[in-house]
Amino acid sequence: MKFARLGAPGSEIPVLVDGDRHLDLRPVTSDVNGDFLSGDFRSRVAAALAAGELDELEGAADLRIGAPIARPSAVICIGMNYAAHAAESGSEPPKIPIIFLKTPNTVVGPNDNVTIPRGSEKTDWEVELGIVIGKRAAYLDSTEESLDHVAGFVVANDVSERAFQMDVSGGQWSKGKIAAGFNPTGPWLVTPDEVDHQNLGLRSFVNGESRQDSNTRDMIFSIEHIVHHLSQYVTLEPGDLILTGTPQGVALSGKFPYLKAGDVVDIEIDGLGHQRQNFVAWEAQK
C-alpha cells in the first residue's frame, strides 16, 4: 500500500494511492499518524476499500503534497552508513551506528521550498531511505524482530549545513541538521511488502545533473540492524522517522559546489517516489 497526505500545511488529507487514484482515508483515520500506524492499519484500509467506503478525492492532482506522515515525535538519523560516503567525508567506515537527531519541524512536504539558513555557505543535499515506525520498539531481542515494528519506508532529503555541522558543532552534528524544513519527506509512505528494502536504487540531482547514484545494498548497517540497535537506547514510537544514511556524491566531498538560492534538487528512490525542492534565500520575517 501507498499512503500520502494532500493539502495545505497543517490541513493535509490522508489518502490511499491506488494506481492513478487518490482515495480519501478520512472514513478510516483523521491522519497518517502514530495512532493510525500502531494498529492493523493495512487490514483496516483493505476492508474499507473492499466495502467501497473510500471515495476518490476530488481535485487531488491540484493539491500540495505534504509529508506522508504527520509530524513525528522523533527523527533519528544514522551517519556515514555507506562506506564511500564515509571516505569522501574523510572518515573510516564506522564500527557501530553513528546517531544524531533532527527536530520534528524539519519534516516537510517533498516538493516544498527549502530555505537556506541565514549566513549559510555550505548547504548540502543527502538522499536517504527513511523508516517509519509502526509499533513501539524498546529493547528488541534480535534483528529478526525489527521489521515487525516498521510501518513502511519513505524518501527523505537530509539537508545539511556543513559549516554548522562541522566547524561550530562542539562535537555534535545536529546544528547543521535542524533548520526548519531540512527534511523533505515523501511523496509516499510505502508498506514493506511493496518494496525490497535491501535493494533499492537511490539517486540525487542538482539542476538536472547527477550527484548520487547508489543502492541500499551498499549500506554498512541494514534496516534490521538499525532498528534493533536503536531500540537498545531509545524507545521508538509509532510514527517516528529514522533516516538511514546517504551514499557518496554530496558537496562535502569537494567535487561539487554547495547549494545556493535558485538551485533545484531532485531526489528519488526506486518504488518510493520522487521529490523536488527549490532552494531559496533566507528572508527576515515581517
Explain how this protein is built.
The protein is an alpha+beta fold and 286 residues long. The chain is built from five helices and 18 strands. The longest helix is centred in the N-terminal third of the chain and has 10 residues, at 41-50. The chain is globular and about 55 Å long.
Strand arrangement in the largest pleated sheet? 5-4-16-9-10
Q: What is the terminal-to-terminal distance?
A: 42 Å
Largest sheet: 5 strands, mixed
Note the total helix count: 5
| Structural class estimated from helices and strands | alpha+beta
- Strand tally: 18
Low-confidence stretches: none
| Shape, principal axes of CA atoms | globular
Rounded radius of gyration (Å): 18 Å
Rounded average pLDDT: 96
| Element string (H = helix, E = strand) | EEEHHEHEEEEEEEHEEEEHEEE
Strand portion, in percent?
25-35%
